[in-house]
Design goal:
- By secondary structure, this protein is an alpha+beta fold.
- It has six helices and eight strands; from the N terminus they run E-H-E-E-E-E-H-E-H-E-H-H-H-E.
- The chain has helices at residues 25-34, 87-97, 116-125, 147-152, 156-171, 188-194, and strands at residues 2-6, 41-49, 52-61, 66-68, 80-81, 103-109, 128-140, 200-211.
- The strands form two sheets. Strands 1, 2, 3, 4 and 5 form a five-stranded antiparallel sheet that branches.
- A hairpin with a 4-residue loop joins strand 3 (52-61) and strand 4.
- Helix 2 crosses helix 3.
- The chain is elongated.
Length: 218
């Protein structure tokens, strides 16, 4: 199995099937249009097994770093695996493709994703070793009784500010609001990081992998 850099438009749609929104082509297009730092370049590594796509690793390359392609608005990141793909083989292919870099930081991860052990073992076989660390938390506040009830429970100054600014925003043709509801049972990996009732913070994790032991911190 080998991994090579491809354009986002060249990635088969089937590879994004049943993925959470922040692991879809639509999300990555948004990032490419408005989420890249001025000194950053997106890189999409696609692992192929006998000419069949087996995985995708979206990355951000800057002059000094190689990281996962995340933004301040990212709630979840993880490599994309095709159904039936071998995580070990995919991880090894990604590791070989990134061998020119000393470190690779993957942020905004769900540590409970079952493919991590195989992927990291594959990276290790390519000469990398991993160090997990706590990175950030995903905060949300549920509104089970609708927007109006949620707004009524907020402080007076906040309610006034929201009600004063909403009409102006609704008149702006450049803005569009969409109410999105997850299906029953959650929404895959995104739900694992961000679902729940009431105010909650769930720590997400990051992993920094280091090639050939040149730089390593536990």
């Amino acid at each position: 199995m080998i991994a090579t850099e491809v354009a986002l438009d060249a990635v088969p749609d089937d590879l994004f099937a049943d993925q959470p929104f922040q692991l879809t082509a639509a999300w990555w297009r948004c990032v490419l249009m408005a989420g890249l730092p001025t000194d950053g370049m997106a890189r999409f590594l696609q692992a192929d097994d006998a000419d069949r796509p087996a995985g995708l690793l979206p990355l951000l390359a800057t002059p000094n770093d190689l990281t996962s392609l995340v933004t301040p608005y990212s709630c979840l990141f993880q490599p994309i695996l095709a159904p039936g793909a071998d995580p070990f083989a995919v991880g090894q292919a990604f590791g070989r493709a990134c061998a020119a870099h000393a470190t690779l930081r993957l942020d905004a991860l769900d540590p409970d994703w079952p493919a991590w052990p195989g992927l990291l073992a594959g990276l290790a076989a390519a000469g990398w070793r991993a160090a997990w660390f706590d990175s950030f938390g995903n905060w949300h506040d549920a509104a089970p009784h609708g927007w109006d009830a949620y707004l009524d429970a907020r402080s007076g100054p906040l309610r006034t500010t929201i009600r004063r600014k909403l009409p102006r925003a609704e008149r702006d043709p450049a803005l569009h609001f969409t109410a999105a509801r997850a299906p029953a049972g959650g929404s895959g990996g995104y739900g694992a990081c961000c679902s729940g009732a009431g105010k909650s913070v769930r720590a997400a994790r990051a992993v920094c992998v280091h090639i050939d032991g040149r730089r390593y911190s536990a």
